[in-house]
Protein: Porin
Organism: Pseudomonas lini
Amino acid sequence: MIRKHFAGFAASALAMAVTAQAFAGTVTTDGADIVVKTKGGLEVATTDKEFSFKLGGRLQADYSQFDGVYTRNGDTADAAYIRRGFLELSGVLYTDWAYTINYDFSHNSGDSDNGYFDEASLAYNGFKPVSIKVGRFDPDFGLEKATSSKWVTAPERNMAYDMVDWANSHQNGLGLQASSTFADSFYASAGVFSKDTDDTDGNSVKQVNGRFVFAPMHDAGNVLHFGVNVASRDVSDTAFDSRYRTRMGMRGVETLGGNDAGTNGNRPVLGGSSTSAAGSYDRDDAYGLEAAFAMGPASIQGEYVARKTKADASNLEDIKGHGFYVQGAYTLTGEARGYKVGKFDAIKPANKSIGAWELFYRYDSLTVEDDNITTASLTRDVGDAEAQVHTLGVNWYANEAVKITGAYLKAKTDNVTNATAASGTTPARRTGDDSGDGFVVRAQYVF
C-alpha cells in the first residue's frame, strides 16, 4: 500500500512539474537565487547553499541462469527480476542539516507485495568535520558495502558478506551514527542500532558498529586504502536466525519477492539454524579487514571477514566462520575508477561514442566451523563446510547513466551440497552436486 501511494505521489509531482513548465509565467522567490541542474537527476539549490534538494534514482534489471549446486535438483533454472528500483531524494536544510530518503520499489528486496525504505535519515553537519546521522540506514561495515551498488564491480557484493548480512544491513531498524573524514586521508565511524528482532521481553536486538579507514593515496587512479571493521550484537534471550548461509554470488536462487528459481533455488546453509531458541547464544560478533590499490585504469582490492556466534547453552558449541575475496579490474579504455576516502565511485567514460570497458575477476572463499553438526544430513556432512566462487565479467559504461554487466560464475563446495540424490544411496547426500555454473546479465540506468 505504501508503495502504491508513493508511486502516486511521484507521478503527481511529475505532472505538476510538466504543467508548471507549460503554463507558468514569471517565477519569483523571497530568498536567495535558485540554481537548477538537470544532469544526472533534478537538483535545485539556493546560491547561498542553505537549502537544496536532489531527485534521482536507479534501476537495475537482471537476468541469470544457473545449475548444479545453485539448484536443489541440479538442473538449470533461471531468474528475471528488478534487482533495485530506487527513487532517491536528498538535500540540505538550513546549511547544517542534510536528509536522505531512498525508497526501493523492487519486490526483490522488499516482499512479494511491497517495496521498502532503504534509507530515511537526517544528519547534522554543524560539528565539522563530524557528521551525526539518525534514522534508518545501513551500518558501516566493509569497503564494498560503503561503495554504492551502482558502482561495485561485480553484480553482487562478495560472498563473505552473506555470512554477516546483519552487520551491514538496517533490517528494518533505526540507528545513530557519528562519522568523520579528516586530514584528507582518514575516515572513521561509530554507531549503535536497534534491529527488528525482539528478545523474550520484547526488547529489540542492539548492535554496535565501528569502521576506520586510512587512505594515504586517495585520488582516482592513485589509491592506497586500508580499513578495519567491527560489529557486535546482543542475542541473549533472543530467538533468532543464526544461519551462516550464502547465495554464492547468484541472487536469482532466492530474491525475497522478485522472480527467482522458486523452490528449486538453493541457498546452502554452512552452519547455524533458522530457529535458534532464546538462550542458545549470547553474542554475535563480526570483524573485517579491507585493502585496495589503484594505479591508472588498474585496481585490486580485497576484504577478510570473520564471524563468531558465542554459545550460551551448555549443550551448544560456538559457531565460527571466515571468508575473503580478492578482486582485480582493468579498464581497457583507460579510465580510472573514481574514489572518495573510504569507498570507490563511478567510472566516467572519456569517449562518449564507445563508452568505458572494464574487465574484472574475483575469487571468493568462505569456511564455516559448526561442531554442533555431529550427524550427516542430506545436504551437510560433518566437518567444516567450504564454498569458493570464481567470477569473471565485463562492465560496459555506455555513458554516465547506463551500465551493462555480464558475468560468469563457477562455484565449488565441500561438505555441503544440494539435495540431489540417487535412489537407494546411503548416505543419500553424497551424490549431491558440489559444483555449479551460472551467468548474470544486468542493465542499469541511474539518474
About this structure: The chain has a mean pLDDT of 91. Residues 2-23 form the longest helix (22 residues).
